[in-house]
Every structure is written in C-alpha cells, then in structure tokens.
C-alpha cells in the first residue's frame, strides 16, 4: 500500500510575509536593551550569534551587570564544597577564567558580584583573579557583594598529588586568607564605595572593621564568623554599628568563646530596623539603643556545656532580662522571632512573651538548664 501523499502547498503560502514578523530591529536601542536584559548569560551569548546588529547590542556594557561566580554554568556539579576529579576541577577553573575574560571584554558595569573562593589558595590565586576583575571592569556602581572568601566551591580529589615540597592544603593558612581578604577589601573601598548590600565572612580585626566602616552606603549587612575561638569585643561591635549611618538590616553570626562567657554587648544605631542574631551563640545584650528597630530575631542555642550551679548563677547574674533591654531601647519594636507583638507588650506583665523569651533570653529567670 503506497503511503499517503501530503497535498502540495504553494511556496508563497508557506512563507511568512514581512508583516508577520515583529520589527524588533526598528525599536529604539534602549528598548532592545531592556528586552535583552531579561536573559541570562547563556541566552545572551546565543542571541549574539543571530545577526550582526544583535551581536553589537549584546556587547553593550549595560547588559552585563551581574558577575556571578557562585553558579557553575553548564556543569551543575552538585552542592557547594564538592570534591570532584581533577579533570572536572580543571574544566570549572577554565570556565572561571573564561567568564572573567568575558566580563572584562564586554566592559561590564557590575551592580552585583557573587563569588566563593579561598583567597588563601596560593596555587590558584583566586584573590588575584578577583582583583584583576575589579581593575578592568566598571564597578563604581556596585551595590551588592556576596563574598565567601574562606573556601572554594569545588576542590579536586587529588589536591595533594600536584603539590610542591610542602602540602598545598597545609600552605593554605588562616592568615593567608585574612591577608588576602584585607587586600581585597581595601581595593573594594576605593573601587566600589557605593555598596549597599554586603554578605561575607568577617574576622572582626581592627583593620577589617576600619575598612568596613568606610562603606557609608551600606543598608543590608550580614557578617559570618571566620575565627571560631576568637571573640568579638563589645567596643568593636558598637563601633561598627555606630559608624554606618544608613544601615537598615544587620545579621550577625558571632560565636562567643567559653572564656568570654559573662560578657554582654551594647548595640547602638539610629537607622537599624531589622536585627537578626539568631545564628550567634552566647551573644547577650546588656543595652540596646535602637530607636528605629521594628523586628528582632534572637535564639538561645544550647552549647552542651555543663556548668555547676555556682558558676552558672555567677555568670547569669551579670545578664539583664531581654524583656527589660527591649522595653527600654526599642520603642518601635513590632515583631520578635516572627511573632507580632501587641501594642501593650511593654506592660510589666508580659505573659504573651514568656514562651518567646524562654527561647531567646539568657537571664536567670528564663534559663532553666545547666547545658548551654
């Protein structure tokens, strides 16, 4: 049986007329740029291959506003900190360098920069790569920085095989990371003074605090811990918050060492509206002066440290109740630990706050366990 033949259709009817196409190239250049701005990097590169006019538009610096090293492009190799084969690592490393060259060749005008590199890595020299990027793109208007400088996204499995006389991993020390971070932070103060949102690990040294306070446009700040056994002095924390006049949101990851138990902190800011200290451990406030604060996140984290009764009471006696600290220093507070507060919460009887305070306050009245 012979197959059925499709009826012939005139060529003129199969071809679309010029009226069937939207005249995209006739739009103003700004409109074309606005349309292309919704595409990701891969799609933009694909569009650049369509025609010469599109290629010229795609090369505009206005379309390259995000530098995101935290994504892995087409590799999708799993979770952060994944150990991979040396071949996969070299592929990813090659992508990182090509991506950097791509941003520089496009004369990118960055608004956002996201990266996760071990700046103490003497072999791959990630710190030099980021410094080279900042020197060769327009980053004066950079407003969002998300930087993890303590580890690299991917690490090769045979990291120790291709090493010199000393182990490569042993050569990556905390001080190497810290020195490279401070050099990069110094460059950022000069090249990117308008950063408004920042998320990074922080060492709380006097040098780093002094550099961080130069970002006077900061509105959102999240600081993660770098040192595990090194505490933060109360004066350092107070200096930081008082020196950032436009700060609206602050998230702190602070681990108070055992030797510093009993120390309490004072926090002052005229602009701060949101404060999250729930990731911190052992962080206790003796005084808050936050007239604009509207929401607070605080959590008491058990540290599995057994103390005898005398030691526990001696430490706890130094700490005021969080309720009294909030009542005196946060006149506009509206939410505590995602719970909406009633307008009458400042009354002496705070029955509705009892459950919240038991989860947040370290004072004698609300700490019924000897395990911290």
From TrEMBL:
One of its GO terms (biological process) is SCF-dependent proteasomal ubiquitin-dependent protein catabolic process. One of its GO terms (cellular component) is SCF ubiquitin ligase complex. It comes from Collichthys lucidus (Big head croaker). Residues 25-65 form the F-box domain. CDD domains: F-box_unchar (cd22138). This is F-box domain-containing protein. It comes from the Eukaryota. Gene3D superfamilies: Ribonuclease Inhibitor (3.80.10.10). It holds the Pfam family F-box-like.
């Amino acid at each position: 049986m012979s197959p059925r033949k499709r009826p012939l259709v005139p060529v003129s009817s199969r071809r679309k007329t010029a009226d069937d196409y939207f005249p995209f190239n006739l739009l103003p250049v700004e409109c074309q740029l606005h349309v292309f701005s919704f595409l990701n990097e891969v799609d933009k590169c694909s569009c650049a291959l369509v025609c010469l006019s599109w290629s010229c538009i795609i090369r505009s610096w206005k379309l390259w506003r995000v530098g995101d090293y935290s994504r892995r492009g087409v590799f999708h190799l799993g979770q952060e900190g994944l150990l991979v084969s040396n071949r996969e690592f070299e592929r990813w490393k090659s992508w990182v360098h090509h991506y950097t060259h791509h941003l520089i060749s496009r004369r990118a005008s960055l608004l956002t920069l996201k990266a996760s590199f071990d700046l103490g890595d003497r072999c791959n020299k990630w710190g030099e790569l980021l410094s080279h990027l900042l020197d060769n793109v327009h980053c004066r208007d950079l407003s969002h920085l998300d930087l993890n400088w303590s580890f690299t996204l991917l690490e090769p499995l045979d990291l120790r095989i291709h090493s010199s006389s000393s182990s490569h991993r042993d050569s990556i020390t905390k001080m190497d990371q810290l020195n490279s971070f401070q050099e990069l932070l110094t460059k950022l103060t000069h090249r990117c003074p308008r950063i408004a949102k920042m998320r990074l690990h922080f060492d709380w040294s006097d040098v780093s605090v002094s550099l961080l306070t130069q970002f006077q446009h900061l509105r959102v700040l999240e600081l993660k811990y770098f040192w595990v056994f090194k505490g933060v002095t109360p004066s350092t924390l107070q200096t930081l918050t008082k020196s950032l006049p436009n700060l609206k949101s602050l998230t702190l990851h602070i681990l108070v060492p055992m030797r510093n138990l009993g120390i309490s902190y004072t926090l002052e800011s005229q602009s701060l509206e949101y404060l999250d200290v729930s990731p911190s451990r052992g962080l206790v406030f003796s005084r808050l002066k936050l007239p604009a604060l509207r929401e607070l996140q605080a959590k008491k984290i058990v540290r599995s440290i057994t103390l005898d009764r005398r030691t526990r009471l001696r430490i706890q006696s130094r700490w005021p109740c969080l309720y009294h600290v909030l009542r005196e220093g946060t006149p506009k507070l509206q939410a505590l630990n995602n719970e909406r507060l009633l307008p009458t919460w400042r009354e002496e009887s705070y029955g509705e706050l009892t459950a919240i305070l038991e989860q947040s306050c370290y004072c004698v009245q609300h700490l019924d366990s000897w395990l911290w």
